[in-house]
Amino acid sequence: MSHIARFKVAPFPLEMHKARIVQKINLLPIKERLKAIQEAGNNTFLLRNRDVFLDMLTDSGTNAMSNEQIAAMSIADDAYAGSETFYRLENTVNHFFGTKFFLPAHQGRACEHILAKTYVKPGDVIPMNYHFTTTKAHIMECGGLVEECFLDEAVKTTSNCLFKGDMDMDKLKAIINKVGKDHIPFIRIELGTNLIGGQPISMRSIKEVSAFAKKEGLFVVTDASLLADNLYFIKAREKEYKDVDTLTIVREIAACSDIIYFSARKLGCARGGGFAIRDKRFFDDMKALVPLFEGFLTYGGMSVREMEAMSVGIMETLDMDMISQGPEFISEFATMLQKEGIPIVTPAGGLGLHINAREFLPHIKDEEYPAGVLATAIYIVSGVRGMERGTISEARNPDGSEHIASVELVRLALPRRVFTLSHITFLTDRLAWLYKNRDLIGGLKFTEEPKVLRFFIGRLGEIGDWQERLMAKFIEDFGEDAL
Ligand code: F0G
C-alpha cells in the first residue's frame, strides 16, 4: 500500500478500492449453527454457505473481482478452438512470467495431475520446500513420494523468520544423494507456502535452488498459486527488492523455474489455472494430456469469461495496492489477536490468519484433532467458517497409523478485497470469548473416513457433549436471543 499520511490514528490497513456490488450475509442463532455443523459431520467443507456468516474457508475462487475484470468478461470470444480470448490470455501469461509457452487447465490441481502423470514414476521422490495437499496426493497417486526440505524454523509457529518458506539446501542435497538423481524427476518450489501459514520463500532461496538444480542437471517446477502474497513479501521484507518493480521480480522468480503452474482461483482472482513454460521440450511433454483431461488446448476446461477475467486479474497482481491488501489485513488481525493472548502463527503470512490449535487447546490430543476441533468451535460461536490445516489434512501412513502433522493450524482465510475491518473486529471478539472458555472444548473422531484427501468429505463426531456445553455457556453469557 502507498504511504498514507495520518494525523492522529495509529497505522492501519486502508482499502485502496471501494465496494460497488455487495452480497447479504446472515448470522444464524447459535442453536442453528450447532445443528448445521453437526449435520455437516463437523467438517467445515460440508457446511452450506447459507449457514455461514463470514466464509473464511479459503481464498480460492472467492476473491472479489475488480470492475475491470467483470468488464473484460463481456468481450469473451466463445469458441471451442482458437478463441481470441485464449490468445489474449496466452499473451498475458507469457508477458507476465517472461515465458514462451502456455498450457491451460481448469484449476491448480489439474496442473498437478498433468505434471505428475507426465513426470512421476513409482519409486520417484520429489523434494520441495513444503507440500500442498493436492500436490502430494497426485504425486502419491503416481507412485511417487514427497520429501520436504523446509527450514527447522518453518514449523516453529512463533518465530521471527521472515522467509519460513525457504528451502533448506543441506536437506535438499542430502535427499538427492540418498535417492540418486535418476529418481528425482524435478524439484518443486511452492511460493507463499500454504500449509505452514502462507509463508513466503525469499528470492535469495529461489535463486539458490535454481543454481543448484542447474548444476545438478535437475529441473525446477514452481507452484505460483500464491505468487501475489509472495511477491508482496519479497518487496516488503527482502531489502534488495524494496525498489525493484513488481514485474521485474515476477520475471526473476520465473527465470529460476523451468515449469511454472498456478491456480488462477488464487493468482488472478478468477477461476482456472495453467502452466507457463520457457522451454518447448516441457510444453511438448505435457500438451497431449490437456485435451485428454481438461479440454481443448485453447480453453483447458475454463470458461472464456473466466479466462478474460484471469488475463486482467493476473496483470492487477503487479499493483502493490492490490497485493498488499491481504497481507496487511492479516497482519492487523494478528495484532488484534495477540492483544487477546491468542496463539497464532508469526510472522503473519499471506492468504489467511493461522491460529495455533495445539497451543489454543493443549488438552486435546493430536489423535483427537485439535485444529479440526477448533474449526468447529469457531463456527459454533461465530458462524465463521475456517479450515483445518493439521492432522486431518494429512494422509494416514502406509501402515494405517495417523500421520501427525508438524503443525495443527486453523486457517481463517481472507479472500482478497472481500472482508472489512469490522468483520475482523467481530471475529476477534468471538475468538477472545472462545479462548477464555477453551477448557469446555473436547475432541472429535472420524465416523466416515475416505482414503484419499479425507479432509474434504470425511465426517467426524464429537467425543462426549462438549459442543452442547459450549453452546449453553454462550447462551448463559450473552442471553437466549443474542446471535
Ligand atoms: N497449490 C497451492 C499452493 C494451493 O494453495 C492450491 C489450492 C493448489 C495448488 C491447488 O489449486 O484449488 O485451483 O486446484 N489451494 C486452495 C486452498 C484449495 O484453499 O488453499 P486448485
C-alpha-based Rg, rounded: 22 Å
Helix content: 40-55%
Q: What is the H level of CATH, i.e. the homologous superfamily of the largest domain?
A: Type I PLP-dependent aspartate aminotransferase-like (Major domain)
Number of domains: 2
User: What is the β-strand count?
Assistant: 12
Global mean pLDDT: 97
Shape: globular
Largest sheet data? 5 strands, mixed
Enumerate how many helices there are, as a single number: 18
Identify the CATH class of the largest domain: Alpha Beta
Distance between the termini: 35 Å
Give me the secondary-structure topology.
Layout: H1 30-39, H2 67-73, H3 84-97, E1 101-105, H4 108-119, E2 125-128, H5 133-141, E3 145-148, H6 169-179, E4 187-190, H7 203-216, E5 220-223, H8 227-237, H9 246-255, E6 259-263, E7 273-277, H10 280-287, H11 289-293, H12 304-316, H13 320-339, E8 352-356, H14 357-360, H15 370-382, E9 387-389, E10 409-413, H16 421-436, E11 444-448, H17 454-457, E12 459-462, H18 466-478
Helix pairs in contact: 1-15, 2-12, 3-12, 4-5, 8-13, 13-16, 15-16
Ligand F0G binds at residues 58, 60, 107-109, 132, 134, 190, 194, 223, 225-226, 263, 265, 273.
